[in-house]
Amino acid sequence: MTTPDPNGPVARLLRYANEVHSLAGRCGRADLAEVLAGSAARWKDECTDIVVAGAQKRGKSRLINTLVGHPDLVPVDADVATNCFLSLRRGPKLAAVVHRSTDAGPVQTPVAVESIPEYASMRGDAGKRRDVVSVDITLDNPLLDGLRLLDTPGVDSLTVGHRQVTVAMLQRADALLFTLSAQDQPVLRHELEFLAEAAERVQAIVFVLTKVEDSANWRSLMEENQARLRTFVTQAVAENPDRAATLNPLLEAPWIPVSSKLAEAAEAKRREGRQERADALRARSGMDVLERHLRGFADGRDFARGATVVNAALSVLGSLGTGAKDDVAAGSDDENDVAARLAQVETGLEELTELAARRRAGAVANTFLGREVAGIVAARTAEIRQPYENAIATLKKQDQIDRYMAELPMSVQRSLEAAWSQIVYDVERLSRNTLDAFARDLGLDPVDLAVDRRALPNLSQIQVRGDMAADAPENVDMVRDVLPSASIGLSLGGFAATLLGPVGFILVAPAIGAAIFMGRRSMEKVQRNQAALRSALRDQFSLVSREMTLDLERMVATWRVNVEQIADESLMRRRKELETRRAELKAASARSAEERKKARQSGQDRMTAIDTLTARGMELRKELAAAVAALGR
């Protein structure tokens, strides 16, 4: 990394961050100093991290494949698995390493590149996906020189776990590519909310409109997207003017229309030797414009990282300002100043009491999660069982039943194993939605559930048997079995007698009667076996459902207890902070006039320093924002 210009914004930012860090230390707020140190920790990382995010079916994964020149590298038409991301960086050869987080610690496993979807996509094998945190892919592509592309799960509102993983990745991002599709609906509310959250962490943001090759009205769709973004930002800033600094830059972010399809066609023409046609298709694809932005991010990563550090510094200054204002108020000769600050603290304590009541009510509502888990398991297992019952109804012969019964246990086991991953996913999604709402109601950040990618419960060997008594000797019922068969045999025997005479009657009537008798017995045996199979199948699925439900209820109960414990700790910490402030204000007001004067002067000096640093930070943020906006242009 080159040494920054001593008078440039980056060098001034480093000096500024050191000053804020020192002020936090002098104020006795080591916790705030640590926040700022953590934000600047990645400064020496010479690889620019670019997060690629968007909802499912927005063309995100195909875009990444096109950028790196490997159409089948990243799974397309299947979302990245929950709690997993894909990292693409430059290396000497095409290779992939799966990173897992296990009870024994992190585990790295090299895998074949073609098997990446099995480990990293929602259509992959549930067993292979278990515990996977990321897949690190290396390939020799000049575009990735100094760049790392991070493909993240979709940010759709129904996949809360996906969204949280993507938001977490923004903590390490220098830039964000947010994808929208020209062949899909305009930007949705949950996507806008994600962007607002992203803008608090990342300043270098680019909107990429994919799939423009087959859309005649992509320009009007892009304008509608921009209008929706403008309306969202305007309303959000009107509700909270403090968000203007982070949200308004979204309105200045560039929009780049691209077509992976045209870029791939250009490469095909180039291989055919049709350079002029290839160049025309490549220009239409928009990929060159996007690549210039990516290289701009790599060359100007100091600006992007600087913006993140400034945001952290301004947040630290805001927290320091609260303590300084308390000291000024406590040292005031006007008792109304202290009374006003105390009133604010008392209001905060009253709000915490209300939150505590809502926490208790929310905890009661959370207890019903177990019932909903049982409903999910019952619905999914019923979906699996029904095709088997339908198949049983089609079995008309005993040999068909015998073959079906031989294959049934293993078939049911495979079906349950395949469904288990989806059941866990459904339960996890339900729990996240419920517990996230609980946390938001208490003013907490979204929950972080410890998902362990659970294995299927250790079910006993599937046992589904037919009517074991069907093959046992059975008493003959004269009325039910013999008389109907004999009657039909005599009738047909009489018909044979008219044709063949008495001999025909003697030969035909008994044979027909015996055939009918055996046919009825065989048909009844099949029917009994069908009924027994259906009954046994239902019993087995009922047992499996109970075992699955019990296992998942334990998992959900653990999540619920952990989240409620975090809520309790947060409420207790906030109450302690407010009670400490109240005690300090009361103690300060009881000091001597000289002591109050010193406290007031100390608070005023800190407020002056904080105001000066805040003003400098705002100017630096504007300067860095302009530098970031110019990257790639």
Automatic annotation (TrEMBL):
Gene3D superfamilies: P-loop containing nucleotide triphosphate hydrolases
Transmembrane segments: 492-518
Keywords: Membrane, Transmembrane, Transmembrane helix
Domain Dynamin N-terminal, residue spans: 50-211
Tree of life domain: Bacteria
Region (Disordered): 587-606
InterPro entries: Dynamin_N, P-loop_NTPase, TRAFAC_Dynamin-like_GTPase
Cross-referenced PANTHER family: SARCALUMENIN, TRANSMEMBRANE GTPASE FZO
This protein's name: Dynamin
Organism of origin: Planobispora takensis
